[in-house]
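Listing S7. Sequence submitted for prediction.
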Amino acid sequence: MKFKATLLVLSISTLLISYAGTKSTDTLQDKKGMIKVTIMYPNGDGNTFDMDYYMNKHMPMLAGLLKPMKFYKIDKGIGGRTPDEPVPFLAIGYLYFDKLSDYHESFGANAQKILGDIPNYTNAQPLLQISEVVE
């Protein structure tokens, strides 16, 4: 009985996460035609990055502000091309939308708050690329 109750709780949790559409999980995947906003935080002399803040405060804040966003994902840089090369990016964030206009409209309305939060977790100048998922 305890096992069935645990499965029920896990199933309900999975449904709630999927419904919210903004929690980063392995079950949420991109689809052809989606818009992916990639934010890369380059490594460099003196660059710092607070992954805890980024994961637990910044990205959840984005999920609340960029309402048409479907979900997000985060990569933490752990190495370069070879064992002796430094990591090229400290972190990379991915934001997924159905349409480019969803990103532009929601970001534009919240740009000041989003950009103002960057110094709370990094001193690196982020690079941004907007892509369409093709496969």
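Caption to Listing S7: primary sequence and predicted structure tokens for the chain studied. Residues 2-20 form the longest helix (19 residues). The longest strand covers residues 89-97.
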